[in-house]
Amino acid sequence: MSTGISTAKMILFGEHAVVYGEPAISVPFTQALIKTEVSPSTENQFASTFFTGPIEEMPPFLDGIKRLILSIQKLLEQPEPLTVKVLSDVPVGRGLGSSAAVATSVTRGLYNYYEKKLTEEMLLKLVNHAEDAAHGNASGVDAITVVTEKPVWYAKGKNMETIHFAGELTFVVADTGIPSETKAAVADVGVLCKKEPLEYMPLIKELGGISREMKELLETNIDKIRIGEAMNRSQSILKKLTVSDPKLENLIQVALSAGAYGAKLTGGGRGGCMISIVENREIAEKVVKALQANGSAKEWIFTIGEGKHEGDRPSTYECGIN
Ligand code: MEV
């Protein structure tokens, strides 16, 4: 048996705007991992909590992964059947990049199984291909963050750089428990920007402006209060773009009242997760308690920065299945 592992991702600034060529800042979310196990089999099988059965019969929402497995087998000229089993503690459809993370871990697992060298460039190409099937108009920010496992500054078709944070940051992430409708949210923002460009395109530009401002701050001077304010500004713009929802708004208010400097949705929105920035672990624990008492489905405390550019991957990793 061979394995492939990947992390989730968390967008700090610039979601939705990144679809229009504005920059986004995204980090690997190492609190949630995906592991793929590949083993020989009598027929081509896929196993996961979302679907178990022959690869040919995978449901439409797994089209990207199905296409990925079949195209890797073809590319590497390996027609023998196998079982691809995905174990995940990344909640599906919560704005944490689960589709890019599954594609990355499956690709790594298959290349390890076939004992073939996988370059980062090739991995990115394969994951982007799978993401196109999953999201339609994906900007590529999820794929680049998950594949590089580094905080990234990304502007579609223009620029991608690794960011080094000047200090440590602590976030509390909370899951609304509601699947995020990324594809529909991206499409609806597209309709708004097309129908009323004078009203909505300045909002997209403003989100890009916040990413630019925050890149400089994150790389030179970790001012948590200013980062929190920028998160609040982003959230009010994302709300105007119609991608927030009452459950996200509620968790955001709970986090702010419990002492977070700022909070916003992350990823596609309309369900999914919210992120909040806090001063330290002590405040983070207070925020977690408040969120637990007010309807969040799951919470994580996540630190990143100061030599921990890859985040604080848990020291013992057990593949929880959800
Ligand atoms: C999804 O994680 C981020 C969005 O900006 C869509 C995309 O960039 O493909 C909403």
UniProtKB/TrEMBL annotation:
Record bears the keyword ATP-binding: yes
Gene name of the record: mvk
Enzyme Commission identifier(s): 2.7.1.36
Cellular location(s): Cytoplasm
Entry GO MF terms: ATP binding; mevalonate kinase activity
Ranges that cross the membrane: none
Principal location: cytoplasm
Domain GHMP kinase C-terminal: 222-296
Protein family: Belongs to the GHMP kinase family. Mevalonate kinase subfamily.
InterPro entries: GHMP_kinase_C_dom (IPR013750), GHMP_kinase_C_sf (IPR036554), GHMP_kinase_N_dom (IPR006204), GHMP_knse_ATP-bd_CS (IPR006203), Mev_gal_kin (IPR006205), Ribosomal_Su5_D2-typ_SF (IPR020568), Ribsml_uS5_D2-typ_fold_subgr (IPR014721)
A GO cellular-component term linked to this record: cytosol
All residue ranges annotated as the GHMP kinase N-terminal domain in the record: 68-146
Recorded metabolic or biological pathway in which this protein acts: Isoprenoid biosynthesis; isopentenyl diphosphate biosynthesis via mevalonate pathway; isopentenyl diphosphate from (R)-mevalonate: step 1/3
Protein name per UniProt: mevalonate kinase
SUPFAM superfamilies named in the record: GHMP Kinase, C-terminal domain, Ribosomal protein S5 domain 2-like
Protein source organism: Listeria grayi DSM 20601
Stored NCBIfam families: mevalon_kin
Keywords: ATP-binding, Cytoplasm, Kinase, Lipid biosynthesis, Lipid metabolism, Magnesium, Nucleotide-binding, Transferase
Example of a GO biological process term: isopentenyl diphosphate biosynthetic process, mevalonate pathway
Keyword Transferase: yes
